[in-house]
Write a structure and sequence with these properties.
binds coenzyme A, Peroxisomal Thiolase, Chain A, domain 1, 5-stranded mixed beta sheet, single chain, about 25% strand, alpha/beta
Length: about 350
């Protein structure tokens, strides 16, 4: 048997830079109320959301990603040509093939970097981060750009009062690179496919294309509705509150840390009540800064954790070198949690 040379990478990996892009259009709850029977007070108290951003025609998945990743690369202080891989997590890029990551890599000037998309819903950032860490330690890339990007407004049924107010658009990105010290802990991740239907697309693209009015959901004017994200809100809520707090605790244990060691907690921005409940279950001490970016960003799925991270650092609520627990969870159902040192 021929002896294959072992691959050789950095001893450890860390996040070196972060960047975000929020679309210019800010959408208050009043706009949501034009199509559903609800109230600003209900939306704020049940979800925590006050405003969200919706992308305009020019703010494509690629354009928002290039903005966010460009800032992350500048923040990391590296030249784009040194990026060896671009990983894009999204559920709202509408072409099946090619992956949007190759276009983004090209526009970033990363040369011939490996580039691919992943579909892991609201856990997408954690999945991408885990892959990036592996690539750096294994030696297949010196630096990796991980992007979470969504245009969920394209996949929102504005007449569905269970979801119309929840989603927002945006992109968040990080650069992951070599480190002498451990700065990304072990990932605790997984999937629960027996619950695949509790967050899903209303209609698959092929059924939508067939366009059978007897089969497909219709809007108030009798037109076939564009596919949208639908969910069993309470089932998701219960799963997130009970199961995800356990996963977050496992990630802390895996990193050999206790809640007292944390400076920052950045959970997926799904609902402020889910966030508050996790803080309580995890018994996070007062000194831990908790991301509640959902108030002005809504739920941006794969983009929510890097966007929240970027904002905490930009506002000075968190600082470089802080120890942060991040956890993403959502459609699949899938989840990923880890402890990171902030860039
Ligand atoms: C969507 C969500 C905010 C709804 O909150 P909830 O407290 O579970 O609301 P429920 O669906 O139980 O409805 C409670 C009541 O509010 C009403 N209601 C539902 N939507 C409403 C709306 N938009 N405005 C006003 N009332 C509404 C319901 O009819 C119900 O009324 P009833 O008590 O008279 O029957 C919440 O379930 C949630 O955030 N779930 C997780 C969502 C999520 O994170 N999804 C993404 C995956 S990561």
């Amino acid at each position: 048997m021929a002896k294959i040379k072992p691959s050789k990478g950095a001893p450890y990996a860390r996040i070196l830079g972060v960047g975000g892009y929020r679309p210019t259009r800010v959408v208050p709850n009043e706009v949501i109320l034009e199509k559903i029977d609800s109230s600003d007070e209900w939306i704020r108290s049940r979800s925590g959301i006050e405003t969200r951003h919706w992308a305009g025609p020019e703010e494509t998945v690629a354009a928002m990603s290039v903005e966010a990743a460009g800032k992350a690369i500048a923040d990391a202080g590296i030249d784009a040509s040194r990026v060896g891989a671009v990983v894009v997590s999204t559920v709202s890029h509408f072409a099946q093939t090619p992956a949007i990551a190759t276009t983004i890599a090209d526009r970033l000037g990363t040369g011939k970097a490996a580039a691919f998309d992943i579909s892991a819903g609201c856990a997408g950032f954690g999945y991408g981060l885990t892959l990036a860490k592996g690539m750096i330690v294994e030696g297949s890339a010196e630096y990796v750009v991980v992007i979470g990007v969504e245009r969920l407004s394209d996949l929102t049924d504005l007449e569905d009062r269970a979801t119309a107010f929840l989603f927002g658009d945006g992109a968040g990105a990080v650069v992951v690179g070599p480190s002498k010290e451990p700065a990304i802990g072990p990932t605790v991740w997984g999937s629960e496919g027996d619950k695949a239907t509790i967050i899903k697309q209303t209609v698959s693209w092929d059924r939508f294309h067939v366009g059978d009015v007897n089969e497909l959901p219709l809007d108030s004017e009798g037109n076939i509705k564009f596919p949208a994200i639908t969910q069993e809100g309470q089932a998701v809520f219960r799963w997130a509150v009970f199961e995800m707090a356990k996963v977050a605790k496992e990630a802390l244990d895996a990193a050999g840390l206790s809640p007292d060691d944390l400076d920052v907690f950045i959970p997926h921005q799904a609902n402020v009540r889910i966030i508050d409940s996790m803080v309580k279950t995890l018994k996070l001490p007062e000194h831990v800064t908790v991301a509640r970016d959902i108030r002005t960003t809504g739920n941006t799925s794969a983009a929510s954790i890097p966007l929240a991270m970027e904002r905490l650092l930009a506002t000075g609520e968190a600082k470089s070198g802080d120890t942060a627990l991040v956890i993403g969870f959502g459609a699949g159902l899938v989840y990923a949690a880890t402890v990171v040192t902030l860039p």
